[in-house]
Write a structure and sequence with these properties.
single chain, alpha+beta, Rossmann fold, 6-stranded antiparallel β-barrel, methionyl-tRNA formyltransferase, Met-tRNA-FMT_N
Amino acid sequence: MLWLAATRPLRRSIMRPPSFATYSTQRGNPLRILFCGSDEFSCHSLKALHKKHKEDSGLIESIDVLIRPSKPTGRGLKQVTEVPVASVARELDLPLITLPKDTFTSWFMKQYINLIVAVSFGRFVPPRLLNQAEYGGLNVHPSLLPDLRGPAPLHYALLNRYTHTGVSIQTLSPDSFDTGTVLSQTPLPGIPIPPNSTPADLTSLLAPLGASMLVSVLESGLHLPLHQDVSWKPPYPIRHAPKIQTSARQIPWLTPSISTLSTGLPSENHLQEIAHQSHILGPLWSKLVVRTPRQEQNKRVVCDDISFIPNPSSPDLPPAISSQIQSALDKCKEDPWAEEQILILEWLQIGELNEQPPEYYPPQPEPSDLYNQFSAVAKGDPITDAITNTISSTPTEGEKKKQKEWRLSLQTAYFPDPESGAIYLRDPIRGGKGLLRIGKMTVNGKPPKPAANVAAQLGRTVTDYRGMHFDEEPIGKALKPSPKTEEEGPRDEEMTLKRTRVMMRKIHVY
C-alpha cells in the first residue's frame, strides 16, 4: 500500500508536469495556456507563444489549442476546409481540441489551464471558463481599441480609409466582445497603412506585431491583477467593425456604400466607393433582370475585377471606349431628348425589411411627385404611379408576415471592350464623370466569363437615350421636362410622361 501511494504522484506527473513557482510574483506562476484561434492572424500568435515556451518553459509551461469545427463551404457546401491554426498546432506537436458543436455549452476546460488566449476565434468565451482560469483571458485585437470593436477591424480600417492602425492586447471581458481592459497598445498615431492595402496585406503587417506584443505582455506580467487600462480616447465617435455579412457584398447601386454607412460621411463618387468596396471585400454580387416577351428572370451575378476610371479622358480607358463615351456625351449635350439605341443592363438591388429603404437615393427631384410616390411605396401607402406605370397597395397583415425584403431595379448603360472583355458603366442616378469597370462576371454559380460576353447575353438595347444621364448632372435635373417654347406649342402629355420616365423602372415590394 505504501508503494502504491508513492506511485500516485508519479502517475500524475506523466499527465502534466508539476509546476514550480520559479518566478517572482511580478510574473506569476508558469502559464498553462488554452489557445483559441482560427485564421492566419492567430497563427502568428500561436507560433510566438510556442517559441517562447521552448525558450522559457518557466514562463509558459504548456499550450493546448482549441479550434472550432470545420464547416462546409463553396457551391453546394461540398468542400470542407480546416482552419489554418489546426495545421500549425500539428506542426508544433501541440494538443489539439475541437469545440464540439461549435459552442462552449456543456464543454469543460482542463483543470490545469490558468490562462485563456483567444485570437480571431469568433466565439464568446463564457465567464465560467474565465473564472476557472487563474489569470482569466487575453485577446490580440488588430485595432486601436476602443475604436473598431468587432470581428472585422482590418476590413473596416480599410473601408473607412484609415491612414493608421495598430494592435491592442486586452483582457477577455465576461460581459461582451472587445470591452476588456487594454493592457498594451501600439503608440499613437499607430502604424501607417500602405496605399492600396487589402485585409491580407494588413494581416501580414499586424499579425507579427500582435504576436510580439502578446509575448511582451506575458514577460512583463501585465496579465496579472490588477490590470491598468492604457487605451487611447478617440476624438471622434467610436466606430464599430461588425461581421461582414453577405448583404455587405451586394453592389450598392441605390444605397450608400458600406464605408459611407460606417463613417456617416458622404462619398465624393459613388462608383469609386463601389470599386473601393470590391478592393477590400473581393468580388461583389448583384442581380440582373432579364426580360423577354414572355417572362422576366432575375439572375444572380458575381462581378469581379472591378475598378474605377476617374473620367473618359483617363489613360486607363481604352481609346475605343473613350471615343464611344465622348460621342454619347456630345449627343446628349446637343439634344438631351434624343432617342438613340443604347446597350443597357437592368440591375435589381435587394434590401432586408429591417433596413430602411433608400430615402435620398435618388435625390429628391423637382417636381417632387416621383420622390413622394417612392416614399409612399417604402411606407406601404397606396399609390398609383403614372410615371413608372406601377400600382402598389397597402399590404394586409397576412401579406406583411410573408414580406422578406424590398427590391428596387434600375438600368445602366454599358460600353463593352471587345479586346479585354470588360464593360464600363456610368452612374445612372448621381451623375458624375467616373466610370465603373467590370472585368468578369459569374452567373448563377457557373464558371466566370468576360463581362462583355455576359452583358451581350443578358443585356438589351433601348432607345430612351436621355434616360441614361450621360450629362454630369444627377437625376433631379434629368427629371425636369424641357422648357417649352411658343414655337413648339403645347407638349403632348404622353411624350412628357415618356421623357420624365426614370431608370428606376419598377418598384417591387414583397
